[in-house]
């Protein structure tokens, strides 16, 4: 029987928070895109990963409403769970490595879905934001300590599928890193942490802590 693992990706320093991720380790029994989207919708996570080849690290990423060629926290979580040196996504081959308590991926900014990066004057302004209505995908951010690369951020997907705010979003962090051209330490959502670092030739590393919360759950019918 095809089963589901649930992870939390980009956990805070205390191991809490992080963005929940569903991983279907054997995607073969659910080959159709519509069926995968239906399962992702019933699970209600911001993204769900279907593993099509665990040895090659080939994955397929779905939100409750669409399929994504690449996404940050699903890749970080899947790389940690599968323990592979790379992931094969429709966008391209994502490098992966483990470094102590952190799981890292390396990707190109152009693989990330389009996001509006909206800077605010202070972390307090970001904290006070109301969730906007569906429409634009907004990554709201402000410097907490610019000299140290510390950022406060919140993410509003703008989708009408029940996910009003993302707790932690690696793709948006990747785009912000590429725009600012420096390593970042991002505090997002209610206490998640995302680390990033620019790499040669336009690549960007994105990393964070991953925790397994449930293993071997049945898929929703």
UniProtKB/TrEMBL annotation:
Domain of life (superkingdom): Bacteria
For this UniProt entry, the molecular function terms from Gene Ontology, in alphabetical order, are: catalytic activity
Q: Name one Pfam family in it.
A: PhzC-PhzF
Note the InterPro entries from the entry.
Phenazine_PhzF-like (IPR003719)
Protein name, as recorded: Phenazine biosynthesis protein PhzC/PhzF
Where is the organism placed in the taxonomic lineage, from the top? Bacteria, Bacillati, Actinomycetota, Actinomycetes, Kitasatosporales
């Amino acid at each position: 029987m095809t089963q589901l693992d649930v992870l939390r990706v980009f956990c805070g320093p205390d191991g809490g928070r992080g963005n929940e991720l569903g991983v279907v380790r054997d995607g073969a029994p659910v080959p159709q895109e519509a069926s995968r989207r239906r399962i992702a919708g019933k699970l209600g996570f911001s993204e769900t990963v279907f593993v099509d080849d665990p040895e090659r690290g080939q994955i397929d990423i779905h939100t409750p409403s669409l399929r994504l060629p690449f996404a940050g926290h699903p890749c970080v979580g899947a790389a940690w769970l599968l323990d592979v040196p790379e992931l094969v996504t429709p966008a391209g081959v994502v490098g992966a490595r483990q470094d102590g308590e952190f799981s890292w991926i390396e990707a190109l900014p152009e693989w990330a879905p389009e996001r509006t990066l909206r800077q605010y004057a202070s972390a307090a302004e970001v904290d006070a934001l109301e969730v906007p209505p569906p429409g634009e995908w907004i990554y709201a951010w402000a410097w907490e300590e610019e000299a140290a690369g510390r950022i406060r951020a919140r993410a509003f997907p703008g989708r009408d599928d029940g996910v009003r705010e993302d707790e932690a979003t690696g793709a948006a962090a990747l785009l912000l890193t590429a725009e600012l051209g420096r390593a970042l330490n991002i505090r997002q959502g209610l206490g998640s942490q995302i680390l990033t670092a620019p790499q040669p030739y336009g690549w960007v590393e994105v990393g964070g802590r991953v925790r397994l919360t449930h293993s071997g759950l049945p898929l929703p019918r």
